Amino acid sequence: MSFHKPSAARKEESVSSTTALLQNIRVLDLSRVLAGPYCTMLLGDYGADVIKVEVPGRGDDTRQWGPPWAGGESAYYLSVNRNKRSITVNLKHADGLDLIRRLVSTADVLVENFEVGALARFGLDFERLHALNRRLILCSISGYGQTGPWSDRPGYDFIVQSEGGLMSITGEPDGQPMKVGVAIADIMAGMFACNAILAALHHREQTDEGQHIDVSLFDSQLAWLANVGQNYLVSEKEPNRYGNAHANIVPYQTFQTSDGWIALAIGNDAQFVRFCEAAGCAELANDPRFTTNPARVEHRNELIPLLNNVFIKRSRSEWLEILERAKVPHGAINTVSQALSHPQAVARNMVQAIPHPVAGEIKLVGPAAKFSSTPAQIRRHPPLLGEHTDEILSELGLGKSEVRQLREAGVI
Fold it and tell me: DSSP secondary-structure letter at 52?
């Protein structure tokens, strides 16, 4: 079933086509859940026309991932599907596949995260798509990639966090391995995919040719091990879990005050001296065990108990004031509500309220990147299931009677 966008929602189209970074780019989004939709949401933020293809009657899996709900739409779905149009197409129907091919002929980018080999079974593998539209950039996001012995395994963020080394370095030293609080393997795969698509679009400007991009959650997880992965490659020693501490910098962790916790991030020796003077423990800065960062790392187990005794004597607010005056890197450990209402978040417009056809008004976390001339903005609410089916098919040249027949046949 399709929905027509109410007139009240037309206010969303707040960015003119002359200000959008990707104003002439059309993205066909055959992905679902998180990594793919996050990637296409970013492209939509930059102005691309993103057409989200969903299963008739059910849609993206995340539409059912509630509570919480806003007007019947799950918060999970709302988090990664703004700036898109939704069309419902049955890919198991020959006429549905024909519609996809017609959409492919108009698209610049196709993003999919089916199990490896599914596109070929649909007759939508890269070779055939390239023959249909040689400028098309196909980005496939999967758990383990299109090749390799594990390519046929499904990808789940939690499992990739465990298999990709992240959980082994996350959590308290004597506690159990821990996952990150958000599905970060999915999110990073989506970011890598968006980055790769933008590079491929630039390459296409030079060659007029599209290409196939293969992004996996597992590869992405390994890639963003960053310094921790490199530490192992250099030392061949398994990294330890440090809880909220840092493997290579001390003191760089949380500390308990008399009434709460704060984060301290001393990145160099000068900052350590300033901290010690401001905290009333200047003697520690002159102690040979602690004068340099390598020395502090070596003598971590001696320094941290001393600092614990210092921090517990004052309140959190006192410490935040002291550290601010001393220009020592620090932070309050905010809740999510405190972070989203932080004065800096407000000043940067990181939470934005937009009209929604069934929820009235919803708040979304805004785009992170700020552009001086071509701002990324929320132009469209996360679409209702099939909201733009008739509109998109009309753009393909289908008349109302043809659309009605497709709907009656279960194609859309």
Answer: E
